[in-house]
Amino acid sequence: MQGLKTAAIMVALLTTMLLFSTKSEAQAVKLDPQSIIKQEVDETVTLVRIGQSSNERYIAAMLLCDITYGDASKLVDDESLRSIIALLDNSDDAVRYWVALCLGNFGPRAKPAVPKLLSILDQTDCVKAALTAASAIRVALKKIGADVPPSKCEWRRKVQ
User: Fold this and answer.
1) Which of 82, 49, 51, 84 is nearest to 65 (CA)?
2) Over the Cα atoms of the chain, what is R_g?
3) Looking only at Cα atoms, what is the longest distance across the chain?
4) Quick check: 58 and 101 in contact, CB under 8 A?
5) Residue environment code for 96-123, b if the CB has 16+ CB neighbours within 10 A, otherwise e
6) Which fold has domain 2-159?
7) What residue segments make up the domains of the chain, in order of their start?
8) Where are the alpha helices (DSSP H) in 68-113?
9) pLDDT 10s digit of each residue in the chain, 160 long?
């Protein structure tokens, strides 16, 4: 049942994104690539913020990471980057996981996110779960060029 619900949410989000991309393609004649990326990023940031469920916000954050991958990250303006950084204020760890990975796509441009990333890392580093924002934050900090603090968790030291 949960799998069907997740699939339905993904279909709804993908349909929404298809509608947005169709709108973007229609305007592509008038817009440069940077404007198209800005529109896609801004719309997806909004989906992360207003998603009705945790799954919707999580999928939108994952999509945001995909949109900003590679050379596309160079086309994202500073205002949109600040909007992405602000998504770290979300209390959902799965959302913060994908937002952190997304910020890693920007490399040193995402340095303003470092204080928030370190604060979240301090809160989530010792949470015993299969996947937490802490792992993505460590990847992001490395890509950003910031110091990655060692884990303070005894059980993690034994595993690593």
Assistant:
1) 84
2) 17
3) 57
4) no
5) bbbbbbbbbbbeeebeebbebbbebbee
6) Leucine-rich Repeat Variant (1.25.10)
7) 2-159
8) 78-86, 93-104
9) 555 455 455 545 555 565 555 454 545 456 788 899 999 999 999 999 999 999 999 999 999 999 999 999 999 999 999 999 999 999 999 999 999 999 999 999 999 999 999 999 998 888 777 678 999 999 999 999 999 998 877 654 454 5
